[in-house]
Amino acid sequence: MAAFTGINHLAMVTADMDRTVHFWRDLLGMRLVVGLGHQGYRHYFFEITDKDMIAFFEWPGVRPIAEKDHGAPVRGPLAFDHVSFGVESLEELGRLKDLLEANGFWASEFVDHGFIISLYSFDPNNIPIEFSYAVPDYDVHAHPIMIDSNPVPAGQEGSEPRPHRWRGAVVSESDRGIYPGEAEAVRAAFVKKT
């Protein structure tokens, strides 16, 4: 099994990096920890936690996605519905609701899902976002639940991974080279800063 450490970053897209920075860094308080770029290209990373980030590519000419309610079914191509950020308390959900509304962003009522209580909104790119408070009495990580009245067969098998369904990894050294990307510029900036 893979040894995951969390979500390193989610990669989103914007046509307006300046407004995106103002929303994610200044309004929501997520530090801008990496800014990559050159003419016609930007890729900025915002810190969610000390291990998790959300990143944005700035692509000139891209348009914000059409507003779509969180969890509302659609037809046609789609790969993403919304992203949810955990918060520490109901008070923090209230603070975020007040902050979003005070700055002209729609914010939903709180929705009690049993194991989480959620607040829904949209960023300036119309990306659907959710803020979720985990209800301490219902820890689904410690005690997974399945209450789907008609679960798919795989869901009926329980919560534990069944890796035997897939072939194991075949060790290969041929494709493990590391392409340099922005490494030299990032490392030089890091050394300069420390």
Please tell me about this protein's structure:
- The chain is an alpha/beta fold and 194 residues long.
- The protein folds into 2 domains: 1-64, 2,3-Dihydroxybiphenyl 1,2-Dioxygenase, domain 1 (Roll), CATH 3.10.180.10; 82-163, 2,3-Dihydroxybiphenyl 1,2-Dioxygenase, domain 1 (Roll), CATH 3.10.180.10.
- 20% of the residues lie in helices and 24% in strands.
- The chain is built from 4 helices and 8 strands.
- It has helices spanning 17-27, 90-102, 153-156, 183-193; strands at residues 9-14, 32-38, 41-47, 53-58, 83-87, 111-112, 116-122, 128-134.
- A 4-stranded mixed beta sheet has the order 1-4-3-2, with helices on one face. The protein has a 4-stranded mixed beta sheet with strand order 5-8-7-6, covered by helices on one side.
- The radius of gyration is 20 Å and the shape is globular.
- The two termini are 36 Å apart.
Structure characteristics:
24% strand; four-stranded mixed beta sheet; 2 domains; 20% helix; alpha/beta; globular; 2,3-Dihydroxybiphenyl 1,2-Dioxygenase, domain 1; 194 residues
Give me a quick take on this structure.
The chain is an alpha/beta fold and 194 residues long. It has helices at 17-27, 90-102, 153-156, 183-193, and strands spanning 9-14, 32-38, 41-47, 53-58, 83-87, 111-112, 116-122, 128-134.
Q: Provide the gyration radius in Å.
A: 20 Å
Placed side by side, the strands forming the largest sheet appear as 1-4-3-2
Major β-sheet profile: 4 strands, mixed
Query: What is the CATH topology descriptor of the largest domain?
Result: 2,3-Dihydroxybiphenyl 1,2-Dioxygenase, domain 1
Helicity level: 10-25%
CATH architecture heading of the largest domain = Roll
- Count of DSSP H/I helices: 4
Low-pLDDT residue spans: none
How many separate domains?
Answer: 2
The CATH class of the largest domain, by name, is Alpha Beta
Q: How many β-strands, per DSSP?
A: 8
Report how far apart the termini are: 36 Å
How would you classify the helix and strand content by structural class? alpha/beta
Order of helices and strands: EHEEEEHEEEHH
Give the strand content: 15-25%
Give the CATH H-level superfamily of the largest domain: 2,3-Dihydroxybiphenyl 1,2-Dioxygenase, domain 1
Outline type: globular
